[in-house]
Amino acid sequence: MKLITNIFFWGSLLLVTGGYVLATDKVTRFNWNGVEVVWMDEPSLPAYDVVIYFAEGALGDAKGKTGETHLALSLMDAGTRRYKREEIADNLEYFGSDYSANVLHEYSTYRVSGLIKDLAPTMMKICHLFNEANFPEDELKKEKQRLITVLNQMIQDHAELASRAFRNLTLKHTPFSRPAEGNLSSINNITRDDLLGRLKFLKEKVRKKIYVNAPLKVTKELESIMVNNCRFVGNKDDFVRTALNSVNQKTVKTIHLVTVPKSDKVEVRLGRTLIGAELNDSELAELSAGYLGGGFTSKLMDELRKKKGLVYGVNAFAVYQKYYGRALIVTSTKDDQLDELLTSTKQVIEKAQQGLIEDSDFNRIKNYLIGSYSFKFEKGSSYLDQLIFLDHIGKDYDQIKKYKGIMEKYSKQDVQRKIQEIFSWDNQLIMILGEKKLLEKLEKYGKVEVHNYENFL
Fold first, then answer.
1. What is the pLDDT of residue 3?
2. How many CA atoms lie within 13 A of 257 on its CB side?
3. Which residue, among 361, 366, 353, has the nearest Cα to 428 in the 3D structure?
4. Is 66 exposed, middle or buried (0-12, 13-18, 19+ CB in 10 A)?
């Protein structure tokens, strides 16, 4: 079994009077055969966490073959010329290792973790996969069938289906709209040769970076494995993925109904793509989204759940990537309560835009975000992920230390302005996933575009 509970805890991540005492103070950098290494020294734990970053992701998938990068990295353990899938799994599980790929649109990572005493045999086996993975036809066929089955069964998971459809609609006409894992029209187009070529490209031509959370005493041992076994090399002309075309559409209010059969519940998504200057002040965007829907004490939760009992939960987000961002409100309700939910949500947003923000509400969410920030990085793996993201978007690690000070300077007026900028009701894409009979209810809010859910699989 691949997924084993991660045992890493970052105990040194503390909130103190003068600010954050963070693990960025323990970063050591190396150069292993041209590949940059970021090492977080953790001498107190007998464990390691290694993440290999590739500056290429699903944006590089060939036309009509979305999902090939995901398959190339996630299916490396399907077999090599020397070992079958069962033998590879048995060997890595014997050492209690956790290994997995994560492919995003802009970049990809491959993570390996386990106990220090088993670092050498585990990492050498991983290197063997990078060098010798041959994607046996029978295993590839089974994996593609599994992915297709998962997609066909997504009708049973309306929340996941709604999120998939919402991404497509908000990022329409850009390569970011395609799911990194592939879709029904692309998966069967991917061949064994595609995966062999994709993995070779990632390993030999794409810029790589290695992130490690482990005691420094094993530096030489891991370096030897990465250089001699994985044979990773870095060059100044290594490929780095950039956006294939800009995300530049300006959102105006549009309403979309994604129809599914036999459902008395509706999934609701409101949001928009953020571009240009809207991507500034990410901490303020987080605070503004938090005020609207950041936990049990948020304004939307208070209005929609506590006062009116319309929802079980509601969340608001402002999520930033390198080339774009998205503002998003997520909830669900019974179909006969949809109209009241939309009306109440609009009222909450408009009151905030008008500056009707209570000091107690504002201070509570700001203090919560500041106080809980450090706990995001309890695990060393989570901390490495944050460093990877900061490197990817070109920001300094000191951004983590500055978080508390940045948050403290914001006022209610700042939140009012940011909500107006990114959550204004007239600039939201409203997507409802439910039965077709909801069309009449939605038309009171404007023209509605109707989509069959199968279009998003």
1. 34
2. 21
3. 353
4. buried
